[in-house]
Design a protein that fits this description.
Blueprint lengths: L2 H26 L1 H7 L3 H12 L5 E8 L3 E7 L5 E7 L4 H11 L12 H21 L7 E5 L2 E5 L2 E2 L2 E2 L11 H17 L3 E2 L8 E4 L2 E4 L6 E2 L5 H17 L8 H9 L2
Antiparallel strand pairs: 1-2, 2-3, 3-5, 4-5, 6-7, 8-11, 9-10
Helix pairs in contact: 4-5, 6-8
């Protein structure tokens, strides 16, 4: 077995083990899960999505962070979905999210209480995913949003997420780099968005091609920090792919290529 094949197998085994541990932990620590994620309002949102047929079954958590938990779910047709629930108790996250909302002309007059901010953040991610999809940028397709809950396409199979660039480098790094530059260009010119936090941590390899995820912090190109964020995104791409011996485009030339000026 080749080194890359062994690495992919090792990654899959780690993901399955982590997923199964999360399933067990969620089932044996139901009270903690309910208190942290499924407060009364969130439970009602999830029940509403079940009643409306958006979801058929919600399984255990497949990823967990300070600001959100992502659950593996399926619909009536058995199609895998990801249910992202933003934690309304995340005060630390609340402080950092405001700068991504203020200055974005799509979101004005937002209330500062935590639940309102989380609801806007969820709406923001849903809208960014929809606009990126319309611009033919490979991202998880949005399905539904309500309050602090976003439902989207699950990238992977049966609760096992596709690997990120961080975990498994692409088979053809040069081709992956070219595709990602094209995707950033489409995101900027067609969707009028800047990802804002693009790196190997939020790019997956799926069916041989890169796919961008985690667009919650993405901003309109009219945002006052948009160009700074774009430069940072491109610098992150160049940093990662230069380590894979890709002949990357100099950052100033790359930015002009994306912006078109």
């Amino acid at each position: 077995m080749s080194y890359k094949a062994r690495k992919r197998l090792d990654h899959r085994e780690r993901v399955v083990e982590r997923r199964d541990k999360m399933l067990i932990r969620d089932r044996t620590s139901e009270r903690a899960t309910v208190e942290e994620v499924f407060d009364q309002t969130t439970r009602m949102v999830v029940f509403d999505m079940l009643n409306r047929g958006i979801l058929y079954e919600v399984n255990g958590a497949i990823s967990s962070g300070k600001e959100a938990k992502v659950y593996w779910a399926i619909n009536k047709e058995g199609i895998d979905l990801a249910v992202k629930i933003y934690l309304t108790s995340s005060a630390e996250f609340k402080k950092g999210m405001v700068k991504y909302i203020e200055g974005d002309p799509r979101f004005k007059g937002v209330k500062r209480d935590t639940r309102s901010l989380m609801a806007v953040w969820a709406q923001k991610e849903f809208r960014n995913l929809r606009e990126a999809t319309d611009a033919r940028v490979p991202v998880p397709k949005p399905v539904a949003v309500k309050s602090n809950v976003v439902v989207m396409e699950f990238i992977g199979r049966k609760g096992i997420a596709a690997p990120s660039l961080k975990d498994i480098p692409p088979e053809d790094p040069e081709q992956a780099y070219k595709l990602l530059v094209m995707y950033v260009k489409r995101l900027y010119r067609k969707a009028k968005l800047v990802h804002g936090d693009l790196s190997e941590y939020n790019i997956m390899m799926w069916k041989g091609k890169p796919l961008i995820f985690d667009l919650s912090q993405s901003v309109s190109i009219e945002h006052p920090m948009a160009r700074f964020m774009l430069t940072r995104d491109l610098a992150n791409l160049n940093r990662f792919f230069s380590r894979l011996n890709v002949n990357v485009i100099p950052i100033e030339k790359l930015e002009k290529l994306v912006v078109g000026k």
